[in-house]
Amino acid sequence: MGYTWNLQLKIFKCTAGIVIIIVIGLAIFTQNPLPMIYGLLFGTAISMLNFRVLALTLEKAVCMAPSKAQVYASSRYFIRFITNGIVIFISLKADYLNIIGVIIGLVMIKIIIFVQNLFNNKMFFKRIFIRKEGK
Questions:
Q1: What are phi and psi of 102, to 5 degrees?
Q2: Is-contact 37 101, C-beta < 8 A?
Q3: Residues 6 or more apart in contact with residue 46 via CB below 8 angstroms
Q4: 135 falls within a domain
Q5: Which chain regions cross the lipid bilayer (predicted)?
Q6: What would the mean pLDDT of 67-96 be, rounded to a whole number?
Q7: In a domain, 39, yes or no
Q8: Is residue 105 part of a domain?
Q9: How far apart are alpha carbons 114 and 14 in whole angstroms?
Q10: How many other C-beta atoms are found inside a 10 Å radius of the C-beta of residue 65?
């Protein structure tokens, strides 16, 4: 496995847990949850695939010369970008996929990474919420 495998696994587990919670909530609180669930699962699967490809790209680009790494990383970025466009196009054409669910699935990993890093620094919150004497 690569250098970032443990981090990827942590993010994948957290994403899967959040998706399972959302799917259960959709199944309980909506009348016709299948299109939304299928869209959410489809978008999340593609998002996880894109995240894995990103990790492999970065691990490989680190070992290259800077000019080759830039070209390689840029070409892989456009491939992931086009993949997302194809996924959104498919979700628009397929009546069994909900476009909102697909988009939520596509951004799910980004949200997970943002939230994990936002609440990672405890000293930041201590400085915000604990007042110093004399102020």
A1: -65, -45
A2: yes
A3: 83, 84, 87, 105, 106
A4: no
A5: 12-30, 36-56, 77-94, 100-119
A6: 95
A7: yes
A8: yes
A9: 12
A10: 10
